[in-house]
């Protein structure tokens, strides 16, 4: 069945891969604000973890990311060349080695992954690295240290990951989804009026990661090209915190419908270090849910990954 928007989600589908800027806590807000008839393709040029895609569940999609590891993994699950059973067997075996050898085994897997790009090793690293971040050095090598929990892959945790994979595999079944490794510009080529483009680019000037390089020129070009699209589109971007206002939004994305969502994140464990962040969703006029139709505002979410915003604060 084709999914149309808006959608109110009873339960958010959580993807098996984690990355910076993941929209798990914002996906309800995003999907409840966009109107799309679902006749064309859901186009996501900056796929990341895929949490938005997996919750929209469109019949047809074109998704892309410059990070080949994410796309290859999802492509394999889509094609059925990587099964949840295989992931379970792999994680149980590697988890046992991690438990007996400790961090030396984590670094062995990291080295192996940086030579072969094995998708199973990618899952292992993504789910046992420090703070669950995804970071690659200037040579494109995964370089996040170990989370320091040798018992990371206990049976319950392995089952959780395997269930997340089974769930997205079920969602993908019977769908016409195209996965591409590459630059966002590739997705803008053959867009039609019935499509909808959801944009979630990296933060400007962050440069902390090989696959997250995003200059002011890139941001300006994206804003210009998006506003020329023949179809509906929406953009997610941070708007402000108590230290900074994102001037790029007002400067380059003017004239769109703005919806905002404020959430909190903790720096350290003390309540006094709670910071507020306002996220914007900018929507092409005509594709927004009228304000009167929006139900009660959702509760502010609690952010536990201050790292997500560390570059904004500095
Ligand atoms: C903010 S994240 C997207 C997060 C995603 N919406 C989620 O909820 O998980 C930005 C993504 O854009 C990708 N990316 C960076 N530069 C890109 C480019 N030039 N073309 C396509 N993807 C790019 C990064 O690899 C990253 O996965």
In short:
The protein is an alpha/beta fold. The chain has ten helices and eight strands. It has two domains: 27-66 and 182-313, Rossmann fold (3-Layer(aba) Sandwich), CATH 3.40.50.150; 84-164, Adenine-specific Methyltransferase, domain 2 (Orthogonal Bundle).
Question: Secondary-structure blueprint of this entry?
Answer:
Blueprint: H1 27-33, E1 42-44, H2 51-56, E2 60-65, H3 68-79, H4 84-101, H5 103-116, H6 119-126, H7 155-172, E3 176-181, E4 196-199, H8 216-226, E5 232-241, H9 247-252, E6 257-266, E7 274-283, E8 302-303, H10 310-313
Parallel strand pairs: 1-2, 1-4, 2-3, 4-5, 6-8
Antiparallel strand pairs: 5-7, 6-7
The span between the termini is 46 Å
Low-confidence stretches: 301-314
Which value, in Å, is the CA radius of gyration? Answer: 19 Å
Assign the CATH class of the largest domain.
Alpha Beta
**CATH H-tier superfamily of the largest domain:** Vaccinia Virus protein VP39
Question: Overall mean pLDDT score?
Answer: 91
What's the architecture of the largest domain in CATH terms?
Answer: 3-Layer(aba) Sandwich
Task: Tell me, briefly, the overall form.
Answer: globular
Small ligands present: S-adenosylmethionine
- Strands, total number: 8
- The class by helix and strand makeup works out as alpha/beta
Q: Give the strand line-up of the largest sheet.
A: 3-2-1-4-5-7-6-8
Helix content: 25-40%
CATH topology name of the largest domain: Rossmann fold
- Along the chain, the helix and strand elements come as HEHEHHHHHEEHEHEEEH
Largest sheet: 8 strands, mixed
The count of helical stretches stands at: 10
